[in-house]
Structure formats: C-alpha cells, structure tokens
Design goal:
This protein is mainly alpha-helical and 336 residues long. It is 80% helix and 0% strand. It has 15 helices and no strands.
C-alpha cells in the first residue's frame, strides 16, 4: 500500500512537473511572440509595412493564439484596401479574443470598405450583405461598450448604405449622446455634421438647424459645422444669412487649421453666396450692389479654383469655373 502510494505520488509529481514545464514552455513562446508583436507595432507606427508584417507573422509562428498580431496585420490589409484579407484576419483575432469591442469596430470598417468597393464595381447584392454584416458586428461592439461613440457613428453610415435612414438617425443620436465632442482626423465634429447634412438632404431644414446649432454650442471652434450650417441657409435661399455664416466659418477655419485645404468648402461658399446675391440684386435693379457681389464672387471663386486641385473637389471646382465664366460674361455685357 505504501509502495502504491509512493508510486501514485511519483506519477502525480511527474504530471505536475510536465504541466509546469509545458506551461513554462508556452509562456516562453508567448513572451517571444509578444516581443515580435512589439517590434511589429513599432514598424507599423513608422509605416514600414513589410517589416511590420514579417514581425507579426513571426509572432504568430511562435504563438498562434496571439490575437493582437492578427489585428495589426488586418490594419495593414486595411491600409492597402484589401478588405477581404482584413475580414479574415479580424475574424481570427475575435476567435481568440471576443471581448475587445474595437476588434468588432475594425471588422465593421472592413465590411463597410468592401461594400463601398462593390458599389463602385456594381456587384449588386454583395454590398447589401456587407452593410448588413457591418450593422451586426457593430451591435456586438456596442453590446460590450454601449457608449462606443465611433461604433454608433459607423453604424449610422452602414444604415445609410442600407437606405434605412430612420435607423441611421437613431445611431447618429446615440453617437452624439455617447460623446458630443467626437472629432475625426481633420478635427471635424463629424456626427453632428453628417446628421445635419442627412436631414438637409431630405429638406428637413428645421431638424438640420437644431442638430447643427447644438453641435456648434458644444464645439464652438469647429468651422466645418459653421460651414454646414451656412449651406442650410443656401438651401432655403437665405443668401445673406448664408454669406454671414460662410464668412464666419472661413475666419474660424483660418485660425484653427494648418492647411488651406480645410477652408475650401467655406471659401467656395463665400463665393457662391455672393454670386446668388448678385443675381438677386441684378433682378431688383440694384446694379451697384450687384456689381459688388459679382466682384466678390469672382475673387473668392478664383481663389477657391486655384487651391481646389485635389480629386475630392473635382466636381465642385468644375462648378466654380463655370460660374466664373458666367460672371465674366455678365460683367462684359454690362461693360464693367
């Protein structure tokens, strides 16, 4: 009996020793994996993607459960707009760690990016499925963190892709409630701006005005909100109020932004509001006032056209150039 007990004790000791050894071995592999992960993150932050990818792959070779390595490799895929690969890697990351809401957020961004690509290539139906998946994934993110403002914002965009505008409004409102000071990379309080523009696109000017007024009260330094507010007045044909807000927005943006490119929308607005006021004055026989507004429109639209040489401004720049030609012809006819 004593011998049997000793044997059992020896076996138990051996099992414990093996488990400890295995545990230490796994910890060693995990530590080595995390070292590669750290190196990869440093390379990724320096935008050295090839080196970062190799480090992340080394991390996975050492410890295949390293969910952060999958996550960062997905971010690199996103940088190259390879959304299919990003979706696969993010699902791998979530498979090993399902409690991190930003994993779901990035997965939703990947589905959204793929949906946008499919719309451009007219892959009918596939974009709808990706927008649906985008919403489903973001539901998981907001279930973990109900105040995840970025997730609610992205959910609103996915609902717009599905043409579910009431749900989009609700998601925008939840984003605002979660963080009324949320800014995008350009410093714009983006949820207020997008919700205001959504209301305006359907002619709900009262609702748009309310949203943007609240946005400006919470973020008085945001010139882009002031610009969006001015466009509501343009839509309502209150050109004098629009001009005042465009000018205020331009002055604010000049103080708060480092790049003239961020002032383009307000700059165009000042020009186009002056153009519309000139037409109104001309129709009412106020020729002096009309000339002053045409001259101002010419100045601002020329300034805008000279700066707006980026792809995002291509259509609006074409409109500005057409208006400049029209102004030139009018002034020529009036012998001014």
């Amino acid at each position: 009996y004593k011998k049997g007990m000793n044997m059992k004790h020896q076996i138990a000791t051996l099992i414990i020793a093996l488990m400890t050894c295995l545990s230490m071995g796994c910890n060693s592999a995990e530590m080595e994996s995390n070292r590669h992960l750290k190196e990869g993150i440093q390379s990724y932050e320096k935008k050295i993607h090839d080196k970062a990818t190799q480090s992340f792959q080394n991390a996975l070779n050492r410890y295949s459960n390293n969910h952060q390595a999958y996550y960062y490799m997905a971010l690199i895929d996103m940088d190259y707009h390879d959304y299919t690969a990003a979706i696969r890697r993010l699902n791998d990351a979530i498979g090993y760690e399902s409690g991190w809401p930003h994993y779901y957020y990035q997965l939703a961004l990947a589905h959204y990016g793929e949906a946008q690509q499919q719309q451009l290539t007219s892959e009918t139906g596939h974009d709808f499925a990706n927008y649906m998946e985008c919403v489903r994934v973001l539901d998981k993110a907001t279930n973990i963190d109900p105040y995840y403002a970025e997730a609610h914002l992205q959910k609103a965009r996915c609902y717009i892709g599905l043409n579910d505008y009431l749900a989009a409004v609700s998601a925008y409102e939840k984003s605002i409630q979660s963080n009324p000071f949320l800014r995008d990379a350009d410093g714009v309080t983006i949820h207020y701006k997008e919700l205001g523009e959504l209301y305006m696109s359907f002619g709900f000017y009262k609702e748009a005005t309310k949203v943007l007024t609240n946005g400006i009260l919470n973020n008085p330094d945001d010139g882009q909100l002031e610009t969006a507010f001015a466009y509501i007045y343009m839509a309502m044909k209150d050109y004098q109020s629009a001009l005042a807000h465009f000018e205020g927005a331009y002055k604010l943006l000049e103080k708060t932004t480092d790049s003239k490119l961020h002032t383009l929308s307000a700059m165009f607005g000042v020009g186009i509001a002056n153009y519309e006021l000139a037409k109104v004055d001309h129709a009412e026989g106020k020729l002096r006032e009309s000339f002053d507004h045409y001259a101002a429109a010419q100045k601002w639209l020329t300034q805008y056209a000279n700066l707006a040489v980026i792809q995002e401004e291509e259509l609006r720049r074409a409109g500005a150039l057409a208006k400049l030609m029209e102004i030139q012809e009018i002034l020529k006819e009036e012998n001014i």
